Amino acid sequence: MEELFRLPNVIAEAWTDAIGIPRAKAPRLAQTPREEFKLEGGAKLYRFGAASRTGKPLLLIPSLINRWYVLDLRPGASLVEALVGAKLDVWCLDWGVPEAEDRYLDWEAVLARLGRAVRRVLRETKSERLGVLGYCMGGTLTAIYASQHPEQFAALVTLAAPIDFSRGGMLRSMVDPQWFDPNAVADAGNVAPAQMQAGFTALRPTLDLGKLMAMPDLATDPRAREAFLALDAWATDTIPFPGEAYRRYISELYQANQLVSGTHRVAGAAVDLAQIRCPTLVITASRDMICPPPAATALLDHIGSTDTHVIEVTGGHVGAVVGSRAVREMYPALATWLTPRLA
Question: In this structure, is residue 120 part of a structural domain?
Fold first, then answer.
């Protein structure tokens, strides 16, 4: 199955060979200098920009099912690089790669790992509060954690992070309980990358064809080719979804929409979004099919903060992080919003 998702790259290589264009070298990724702190279960914390730290720390939380370095993809298209350049003390959680035995890593365990990362950052920086930016599912998890530990937060940013799952678009339709049983999937163990990729491919079934059609232009534009290869390298470097965490994520959030209804519980305690009272920024992408903007901005309808703001980036779910509009517009706007709140 995984070979099917690599097929467009194989065809592209054959095409460039046929017309005599040298194959492009694999781009270097995640180049911002960093320190590493080990956590349990193969997870790690990274700290960036040793020479420019100031103010309260900012912790980045990527999605649980994608590699962290989309946030530091390549020079000139790196959220980490931009935030370090704004002289923020930037940290990032690397969730690690689940192994077969991690099928029993449940929702509580995932949020406990996030909590240990937060406390480690606070301890290392001798801070009482921090800012947290969560991307995609990382933003959903961060909002849940923030509602139960509001005293640790100086600022909260969600980036393309679903909160109201009834507005989740096609993905919500695909997992409707009328025809989808997450227990049948989770009972088999971790959800393999190919299984998840099949769902995302269903959202844009012509995406791989589009890649092939772009090959002639990319072959003659080195900068565009480098950007394409970097993003494609990240997109195909996927990791499994722990089975038990998947079960809860789909059944309680996508299907039951418990965050908005106020019925979600973690470790026996209620998740009340109204407990979030820190400054909160929601970043959306105008053409996001994975997290449509209304699914993300719903957070602001349920929190207790009066210091709120929305930034919309033109583009899709990943373009909101590494696209040219994100680089030109979102990165500076985010740094401007964060700087006084983390001073």
Answer: yes
- E-only strand ranges, the chain: 34-38, 44-48, 57-61, 89-94, 130-135, 153-159, 265-266, 269-270, 280-285, 308-313
Q: What is the pTM of this model?
A: 0.89
Two structure tokens written together for 18: 């046929």
- CA separation, residue 182 to residues 68, 139, 166, 242 (Å): 25, 22, 17, 12
Residues in a beta bridge with 283? 159, 311
Per residue in 152-164, pLDDT (tens digit) is 999 999 999 999 9
Say if 246 falls within a structural domain: no
Count of domains forming the chain: 1
CB 172, CB 191: distance < 8 Å = no
Residue 83 neighbours by CB under 8 Å, 6+ apart:
58, 90, 331, 334, 335, 338
Q: What's 103's domain CATH number? A: 3.40.50.1820
In a domain, 318, yes or no: yes
Which tens digits make up the pLDDT trace of 298-327?
A: 999 999 999 999 999 999 999 999 999 999
Burial of 91 (0-12, 13-18, 19+ CB in 10 A): buried
Q: Which residues form the domain of 86?
A: 31-174+257-341
